[in-house]
Write a structure and sequence with these properties.
single chain, alpha/beta, 18 helices, 13 strands, 15% strand, globular
């Protein structure tokens, strides 16, 4: 990427705030980094110039060791507890930054960003990458009971302590989340939600109604986008898609319940001997799963892998997460590669992405019965499977990178004009 490609012509200058420096290869760090790079790459072509504020580097690189693939030295700033408002304001003024877009930030940094924004006439936009009260899942009794059964001695003691004091600990954590949310809204000019379904939860935390035209802090809704730029060609579905089921995620039974598919596979395999299950990922329960599938044909643990080559041939994607995920990047990845998704209804976001019975299935009953019935239907009916695969690709195009970048571009321009 040349220096000319970095410089905007008629668009606003934007500071993207992340935990880790957006270095070359940062898309491998996590979803927020990947989405930030999609924005940067897409909107530089539209005249926007980007800067990066970061707290750390994922590989412990020093400031003088950072690559300049996306940002020159003058386009990046490391935020520390000692960073002053004068220092940040000087950086913003030097780059004529008009928009501070917070993707990730420490709670203490919001005041710093807002004060610096006020000095230089910039606007603070915060993307709420977590759903309201997401962290409270770990205080649920059913989660703690599973954690107790599956942990070592130290883990059992931690789970037992949480069970004994779950009410008090939950309230303390909820109060912390409420204070952080109030802080975020009071110090931002605009917040961005991933889904309209999350608005009631935030209104409950804030104890007031939210308005898109609020004079103090308005909001917008911009869903995340697909990871890859290309889509699986629908014409190749009958020829390239194999009788494969793909499971992706952290191998931790208390949150993923991958044991469900392992247990039911013995019955499914007898009815569908030409099908296979591939489980991608790593985690504390990998040893347990390896013991469970020993001497069981047609199901394998692949470890941590780049999933793209697996997406190309698999036909069904299963997400057995029982946590309240804000967004599942692998779900959209699977859909744009023409896999039929089957997920538990544990997050409001799934109904935004999947049309139940048309482009995938959202399972209400977390017992194995409904899951097994859905899998049998899909595995038995090739015509239905191919039709839903085409619908899955079509649905994923609603969350294209082009649409994502255009929505943020419109938001940037709108807020930029409001301060010009």
């Amino acid at each position: 990427m040349g220096f000319e490609d970095r410089k905007g012509t008629d668009g606003p200058n934007i500071l993207i705030c992340t935990t880790f420096y957006l270095r070359l290869g940062a898309y491998q760090i996590g979803g927020v980094e990947h989405l930030s790079l999609i924005l940067i790459s897409g909107l530089r072509k539209r005249g926007c110039r980007f800067f990066n504020a970061f707290r750390a580097t994922d590989d412990n690189s020093k400031d003088d060791e950072l690559d300049e693939h996306y940002f020159l030295e003058s386009e990046r700033i490391r935020i520390t507890d000692e960073t002053s408002c004068d220092e940040l304001s000087k950086f913003l003024a030097g780059g004529n930054v008009r928009i501070i877009h917070i993707q990730q930030a420490e709670s203490r940094d919001y005041l710093l960003y807002r004060e610096a924004a006020e000095r230089v006439g910039a606007v603070v936009i915060t993307t709420m990458n977590k759903k309201p009260l997401e962290d409270l899942f770990t205080f649920r009794r059913d989660f703690l009971q599973r954690q107790f059964r599956q942990s070592n001695f130290q883990g059992k003691m931690s789970a037992l302590k949480k069970m004994l004091f779950s009410g008090r600990l939950r309230k303390k954590r909820q109060d912390q989340i409420r204070m952080k949310t109030m802080n975020t809204f009071s110090l931002s000019h605009m917040v961005v939600f991933l889904s309209r379904n999350y608005i009631p939860g935030y209104e409950n935390l804030l104890q007031r109604e939210l308005s898109a035209e609020d004079s103090e802090c308005s909001f917008s809704v911009i869903p995340n986008c697909v990871t890859f730029g290309n889509y699986f060609p629908e014409i190749h579905i009958p020829r390239l898609k194999q009788k494969e089921i793909l499971v992706i995620g952290t191998l931790e039974e208390s949150t993923r319940r991958i044991s469900l598919i392992i247990r039911m596979w013995k019955d499914l395999k007898s009815s569908f001997p030409d099908w296979t299950v591939r489980i991608l990922g790593d985690g504390p329960s990998s040893g347990r799963y390896r013991s469970m599938i020993a001497k069981t044909e047609g199901i394998t643990l692949e470890g941590r892998q780049e999933p793209e080559s697996y997406y190309r041939t698999a036909s069904i994607y299963i997400n057995l997460s029982i946590t309240d995920d804000a967004w599942s990047m692998s779900l959209l990845e699977a859909m744009q590669y023409a896999l039929v998704p089957v997920v538990f209804n544990t997050s409001e976001i799934y109904s935004d992405v999947i049309e139940h019975g048309h482009s995938g299935f959202i399972i209400e009953d977390m017992a194995t019965k409904e899951l097994e019935q859905v899998l049998r239907r899909l595995m038995r009916d090739e015509g239905m499977r191919h039709s839903m695969a085409r619908n899955s690709v079509a649905r994923s195009k609603m969350f294209s990178q082009l649409v994502y970048c255009r929505r943020y571009h419109d938001l940037y321009l709108h807020t930029h004009r409001s301060i010009s």
